[in-house]
Amino acid sequence: MRYAYYPGCSLTESAREYDVSTRAVMQRLGAELVEIPDWTCCGASAAEPVSKLMNYALPARNLAIVEKEMDGIDVLVPCAACYLNLLKVNREVVGDRHLHGQLNEVLAASGLSYRGDVRVRHLIDVLKNDVGAKIVEQKVTDGLQGMKLAPYYGCQILRPYPVFDEPGKPVSMEPFIKAMGGEVFDWSMRNRCCGASLMVGHPEVAVKSVAAILADAEGADAIVTVCPLCQMNLEAYQGRAVREGGKFVPVLYLTQLLGLALGLDQESMQLDKNLTLTPAARRDIAARAWAEPVPESETETAGAKG
Amino acid sequence: MSGAVRKTWSPASEEYQAILGGLRETVGACMQCGTCTASCPNWHAMDVTPRAMWRMIQFGMLDEILASRTFWMCSACYMCTLRCPRGLKLTSAMAALKRLARVDGNAEARRSGAFYEAFMDDVEAHGRVQETGIMQRYFLKRKNPALPLSFLPLGVKMLRKGKIHLPSKGQGGVLMPMFAKAREMEGWT
User: Fold this and answer.
1) pLDDT reading at A7 higher than 50
2) What is the CATH number of domain A2-123?
3) Domain residue ranges of chain A, discontinuous segments joined by +
């Protein structure tokens, strides 16, 4: 299993723990990730409101590099927005001769062109279809001992193009939660929008969504995410959301939990980076979910840091 | 809206017409069932429902469209696109409406479009987006001195968690030729 790895900008900035844990977990599972050389931003949800062509050209540049320099192997993307933008090129441009021509005209300004032969895969797609929950289960060394986990899928890995899951009632994370020894927390907000970039310009609107999601997660030990923006919105605005009816719930990346279950430690999964994992929350989770409680000195260092 | 009111049949400039024409094509088959409105998580913040917005596009009610804040409330969750019984690309239509409003450049477009522009400016300058860079550009565009203060608590929290990184040169201007080409082809600024 060899993949062209597209981390995306968030994973080099505020979501470094997602990048680090994804690389470590995929290595444990026997997959080789090769970072796309000189990759650039996909445009996220900001390109389409500014320019239709750049909305396709920004992600396509990365696919063109994979096609040209990496034999067109599958691209693995952990971020939901990056995933959809890259996928859109294949779904909306390839096959539309006029648009495809325009796209290549823009790419030609950088000496590139894209035929349309590169497959775009989200992390869950690769975990589900190339690795499999059985393999994960066999490799688990520190089971999560019934930790109640609420899988949160968000939007853009499910919609508008259903590839590896049911967009109305997604379930693709559940076999992995069970494989880790966790318990799936059944809730209805798993595919509800977190407000995305609306949180910057119109926080009063987005906080309502976050509050509704957090309220529904009441009773779960943690929410599990696979998108850096979902993670940020659900974590960073909990104070405000709680005032609007939400509940405090720790939020973790799927790969962080997978890493812990596969025997990697809290430091290498960078649990101290999560905004909702206060030392108290970490002790609470550790006591309930992991066989070995965190040594006292360790939690104190984390406390000093955050 | 003050000043001249353009009726539905009045001619709009070419720039508007190009985007409006595309929009009419996208939502032309809308049968007004309202599934989009019922599916929207942000409907409560909209002044015109998505269903009504598609009708206004079909009728070419440019002034009424531009006076609305509806499309700025779209967070691109694609629920309406998924559920539309006619299979229309409604989320793309919302993005096209944002582009239309940027051509117009009214106050709401300057306010709500500021983040997207700050983001794209940063991409053009560095190849990859840098969060501190975007926020600086965003604050400058919004010209509201109280705004950075509202982000201060979050900034402090992120700083303490080691989540804030100083701006760097990044990948440099590697994307500049592509931006220049797209501008030339589409005529935006």
Assistant:
1) yes
2) 1.20.1050.140
3) 2-123, 135-305
Binned at pLDDT 50, 70 and 90, residue A225 comes out as very high
Please report the ipTM that was assigned to this predicted complex.
Answer: 0.92
- Contact (CB<8Å) A193/B185: no
> pLDDT digits over A236-278, tens only?
999 999 999 999 999 999 999 999 999 999 899 999 999 998 8
User: Can you name the CATH fold of A135-305?
Assistant: Rossmann fold (3.40.50)
Q: Are A193 and A157 in contact (CB under 8 A)?
A: no
A40 touches chain B (CB under 8 A): yes
Chain A residues touching B129 at Cβ < 8 A: 9, 13, 41, 44
Mutate to test the interface with B, among A6, A20, A41, A83 (most CBs of B within 10 A): A41
Mutation test of the interface with chain A: which of B79, B137, B185, choosing the one with the most A Cβ atoms within 10 A?
B79
Domain architecture of chain B: domains with CATH: 14-108 (1.10.1060.10), 113-186 (no CATH)
A114 neighbors A104 (Cβ within 8 angstroms): yes
Per residue in B57-91, pLDDT tens? 999 999 999 999 999 999 999 999 999 999 999 99
Extended beta strands in chain A, E state: 2-5, 32-35, 75-77, 120-122, 148-151, 183-184, 222-225, 251-253
